[in-house]
Amino acid sequence: MNITEAALFWGFLLVYGVVMYVLSPKSRNSESFYKGADDQGNPVSQWSLTASIFISWIFAKSVTNAANLGADYGVVGGLAYASYWLSIPVAGYVIYLIRTQTGARSLQDFLTSRFGRFAGLAFAAAILIRLYNEVWSNTAVVGGYFGLPGELEYYLAAMVFTAFTLAYSLKGGLRSVACGPVADVQLSVSRSGAY
User: In terms of Cα–Cα distance, which of 101, 61, 103 is closest to 84?
Assistant: First the structure.
């Protein structure tokens, strides 16, 4: 990466971090922080959370994986990974059936009532491990744009990205996290319009 490219990449990362922090709504109480409630006390909608998860997933590791498989295996590789995205609506449908047919308020509630407390704890542990892996794999994607694993630029970019993400998450909690992908989409659309 030459000096001009490096300046553009680092400039974009820094501007992105500042913009995300500035745009993130500040939580004023625990309802806002933990449940994403707005200033009137309305919790974040399921559609907003679903869109947030979907957009976050696509914009990070999945795009990189699809591109890498497409580069290695052609259209078949890209389509194979893209078909993996079908797990989102399938999982949504299964969760919908569980909630409507059993009256459970959550997967945790369903597992605990049906299979006992240990099943609920095991599920929570699996989700925790999965989220931990997702955070660091997404951070690795960002680091990969700046250098190879083991290089200073790779780790520095990963740490800067993590610091910005942590800052805006601490500022607004779930409310910031649910609003963040909207800004990601707007940045991406405006960037694609520049080409």
Answer: 61
pTM: 0.68
Query: 1, 141 in Cβ contact below 8 A?
Result: no
The H or E element spanning position 99 is helix 87-102
Closest CA to 124 of 103, 106, 140, 101: 106
Domain locations in the chain as residue ranges: 116-178
Q: What is the pLDDT of residues 102-115, one digit of tens each?
A: 999 888 899 999 99
**71 CB neighbour count, 10 Å cutoff:** 10
Mean pLDDT for the chain? Answer: 82
Q: What is the largest CA-CA distance in the chain?
A: 59
- The shares of helix, strand and coil residues in the chain, as percent rounded to the nearest 5, are 80, 0, 20
The Cα-based distances of 132 to 94, 122, 136 in angstroms read: 24, 15, 6
Torsion over CA: 160, 162, 167, 172 (sign): positive
Q: Which residues of the chain have pLDDT under 50?
A: 191-192, 194-195
149-158: pLDDT as tens digits? 999 999 999 9
The end-to-end CA distance of the chain, in Å, is 21
Give the pLDDT confidence score for residue 110 in this predicted structure: 93
C-alpha 63/C-alpha 188 separation (Å) is 13
